Amino acid sequence: MSEAFARRVEELFYVVDVDARMAGCGMIDLSTGKIDAVFVRPEYMRRGVGRAIMDHLEHLALRAGLAKLHLEATLNAAPFYLALGFQPEGDKLYRSSLGVSLACVSMSKPLRKGWEG
C-alpha cells in the first residue's frame, strides 16, 4: 500500500463492526462529496449495514455543508443506491489502479439542508 493511499484510508475511511468483525466500510471525500469504496461482507448483506454506512457518510456530508453527493456504482449496486435516493447520470467505465475495468453508473444525490439522518 502506498503512503498516499494509506493516508487516504486513515483520513476518509469508515468501518462498521458487528460482533467484533468488520461488516462493511466506505469512504467520503468531504472536499468533493465523492463516496467511494462502499463494501459489505456477503454474510452481512441485507442486514442494514450498507444503509448504515451510507447514512453516516451522508450525515458527515451535511455537517460539512455539502449540497450534493456523487459516486460511481457498479451495475449490481445501482439498485441499492437508487433506493437511497441517488439518480443515474450516465454510464461510465471505471478503471482501477490495478488494471481492472468495471461497467458503472455515475450517480448523484442532492442533500436536503436541515436533515439530521
Q: Which residue ranges are poorly predicted, with pLDDT under 50 across at least 5 consecutive positions?
A: none
- Give the proportion of residues in helices: 25-40%
Main beta-sheet strand count, sense and barrel state: 3 strands, antiparallel
Number of helices: 3
Structural class: alpha+beta
Count the E strands. Answer: 6
Task: Give the terminus-to-terminus CA distance.
Answer: 34 Å
Could you state the oligomeric state of the chains shown?
single chain
**Name of the level-1 CATH class:** Alpha Beta
Mean pLDDT: 89
Strand order of the largest sheet: 1-2-3
Going by CATH, what is the homologous superfamily? Gcn5-related N-acetyltransferase (GNAT)
Kindly report the CATH topology. Aminopeptidase
Report the β-strand fraction as a percent range. 35-45%
Radius of gyration from CA coordinates:
14 Å
The CATH architecture assignment turns out to be: 3-Layer(aba) Sandwich
Shape: globular
Counting structural domains, the number is 1
Order of helices and strands: HEEEHEHEE
